[in-house]
Write a structure and sequence with these properties.
CATH superfamily: Endonuclease Chain A
Number of helices: 6
CATH architecture: 2-Layer Sandwich
Number of strands: 7
Number of domains: 1
Largest sheet: 7 strands, mixed
Radius of gyration: 18 Å
Structural class: alpha/beta
Order of helices and strands: HEHEHEHEEEHEH
CATH class: Alpha Beta
């Protein structure tokens, strides 16, 4: 097979960029991929929350999954700092908003005039879970969804920074 010089040059430039800029591809990151419903995304989220030692921060569009809420309540009962940002349009009678608030968890409704469509969790400032997975039974058992868990403090810092901006009502910076 004949490979063009232009393709070789492009590949070498891309490789050099990855080597020079390790933030693009963290060297020590462990990444786990889950595809729902077959991989039971809720169990991965619950496991992360149950293993947390310091903090759990969540920004999620829709949150109706009782077992994930139970895990967050257990984390709060263990003395962890637990905070949640929810899309205000998604707080309905099915939402876990009321249960979380009643358990003493800090819950904020997004202040963004548009949809807050994030779906991420940061545990102990070291692990991020993100993807299309909303914290709902439908996402867990019916929909085609994805969840990626990234074990990397640098990636976690970026998500934590985004969470802090959102928590303070800053969007789009």
């Amino acid at each position: 097979m004949r490979v063009s010089r232009a393709l070789i040059v492009i590949l070498l430039i891309a490789l050099a960029y990855i080597v020079i800029n390790p933030k693009v591809h963290p060297q020590n990151a462990q990444i786990n991929v889950y595809l729902c419903p077959e991989d039971f995304c809720s169990k991965a989220i619950i496991s992360l929350i149950d293993r947390a030692n310091e903090s759990v921060d969540v920004a999620v569009y829709s949150f109706t999954h009782k077992e994930i809420a139970d895990a967050m309540i257990r984390a709060k009962e263990r003395g962890l700092k637990v905070r949640v940002i929810l899309e205000s349009d998604q707080v309905t009678s099915y939402s876990q908003y009321g249960r979380l608030k009643a358990a003493g968890i800090e819950v904020e409704l997004d202040k963004n005039p548009y949809s807050m469509h994030n779906k991420f969790l940061v545990v102990d400032g070291r692990v991020v879970a993100t993807g299309s997975f909303n914290y709902t039974e439908a996402a867990d058992k019916k929909n085609d969804e994805n969840l990626i868990i990234i074990w990397d403090p640098e990636v976690a810092r970026k998500y934590e920074s985004e969470f802090e901006e959102m928590w303070s009502g800053v969007y789009g910076r």
